[in-house]
Amino acid sequence: MWHVSVDPHRKTVVMAAVHDAGEVRPPVRLECSQTAEIEAWFSCDRR
After folding, report:
1. Measuring CA to CA, how many Å separate 39 from each of 13, 20, 21?
2. DSSP letter assigned to residue 7
3. 23: domain range?
4. The total number of structural domains that make up the chain
5. What pLDDT, on a 0 to 100 scale, did the predictor assign at position 43?
6. Torsion 17-15-44-3 (CA) sign
7. Phi, psi (5° rounding) for residue 24?
8. What pLDDT is stored for residue 36 in this prediction?
9. What is the pLDDT of residues 22-33, one digit of tens each?
10. 36, β-bridge pairs
């Protein structure tokens, strides 16, 4: 199971994730206006 952290700010959002198996997705900072990139970050197809 993935455990996801989303830290919203006024102009940006910071997201990171860690899997029970120990795999880590490093933090990513995106502008709030980058809605397509934010949605893609949550996609199951991303590697």
Report:
1. 12, 22, 24
2. E
3. 2-41
4. 1
5. 85
6. positive
7. -120, 135
8. 95
9. 999 999 999 999
10. none
